[in-house]
Specification:
The chain has 346 residues and is an all-beta fold. It has no helices and 22 strands. Strand 13 and strand 14 form a beta hairpin.
Length: 346
């Protein structure tokens, strides 16, 4: 991502438009945040919509981002005077190096260097070029990011996916990871800017629950290291994909009984207790036959069935299977058998 460096001072001494009253000054940004990641520091903040007096801000032109650098090298003088410098100017209509989404600005500073402390602030300005007051300040200490996690694997559960990974042993003298961040996207989406976990994951396993069975999800893992109070995130692992789904089949149906009647055989059974039962398949074997044959063309969705193809002059044995609603439907074992004899002739 390109970075626009502005070296011109705030004012040049030229005569400009008349200054507005104090009430027309844009309100200061108060939620500037930073996310150190992959050799870059990303920033985000909400676009102000009001002036300092509470009136609607209608002439916002842009933002100026300021940075104060301090080397963490022991030879540097911590008491030496330093000044904030403009490192970016973001036009609200043509943001170029920044991105504007949903009333927020996203901007990145790729010029950070190891062993350096940075403090950022910004000011918005209106059509009079009148700056707002300073935003809140954000201070970070930058150093080399950790490497990417390896051997990322995924395992399917019912309405959940378990993601595991491995992190290589750090080289001598390099701090190990302080934790991991996990990012998720659904099919047709892109990875979010923020991880799923509010705090770094301490282990190398994460169970992502409350997912939709049959829907594809993708994940990437990033290690974070802690440097002087700053969490620095490294590059992403390889992307893994998974589809949550039920692993165990339904219980076999219970309570099957069959009653011969004129025109066929009536079957009834107890409804399965599982909430994801899609229906039942019914199997029949006539006297003298060796194998059971499924007699329903589509899933039977209620716990009863009338077999109109049964010959009232024959004996039959019936059994059932329950089928769940998984993307790859799972069948139960057979129920106990129900046998009937032919109806007596009149």
């Amino acid at each position: 991502m390109a970075l626009l460096i502005v070296t011109a001072p705030w004012g040049c001494g030229k005569k400009g438009p008349p200054l507005p009253p104090e009430s027309n000054v844009p309100a200061a940004v108060s939620d500037l945040r930073a996310w150190p990641r992959e050799g870059t520091v990303f920033f985000g903040w909400t676009i102000p919509t009001r002036n300092v007096d509470g009136s609607r801000l209608q002439d916002l032109l842009g933002f100026r981002v300021f940075r104060l650098d301090r080397s963490l090298n022991s030879k540097d003088c911590p008491e030496c005077p330093r000044n904030f410098k403009v490192v970016a100017e973001i036009d609200i209509d043509y943001p170029r190096a920044a991105r504007i989404e949903g009333g927020r600005v996203l901007w990145a500073d790729p010029t950070v260097k190891p062993e350096t402390e940075y403090t950022y602030l910004l000011r918005s300005y209106n059509s009079y070029k009148t700056p707002s007051r300073e935003s809140n300040r954000v201070k970070i200490s930058w150093n080399t990011p950790p490497s990417a996690p390896e051997d990322v694997k995924i395992r399917s559960e019912n309405q959940a996916l378990e993601i595991t990974w491995r992190f290589p042993e750090p080289k001598r003298g390099v701090p190990s990871a302080a934790g991991f961040n996990l990012y998720r996207r659904s099919e047709g989406e892109r990875f979010g800017f923020l991880p799923l976990n509010p705090e770094p994951i301490q282990g190398k396993r994460f169970l992502d629950g409350a997912l939709q069975n049959g829907r594809k999800y993708s994940y990437e893992v990033r290690a974070v290291r802690r440097f002087r109070g700053t969490l620095i995130e490294g590059p992403a692992s390889s992307v893994v994909e998974g589809i949550p789904g039920k692993r165990l089949p339904p219980f076999p149906p219970r309570g099957l009984f069959a009653v011969p009647q004129e025109g066929g055989v009536a079957l009834r059974w107890n409804e399965n207790p599982e909430p994801d039962i899609a229906g039942y398949d019914i199997y029949r074997r006539a006297e003298g036959e060796e194998t059971f044959r499924k007699i329903n063309t589509g899933l039977v969705r209620v716990p009863h069935f009338l077999d109109l193809s049964a010959d009232p002059g024959k004996s039959y044995t019936y059994r059932l299977k329950a089928v769940d609603s998984s993307p790859l439907p799972k069948e139960s074992d057979f129920s106990t058998d129900a046998e009937i004899s032919p109806l007596p002739t009149k």
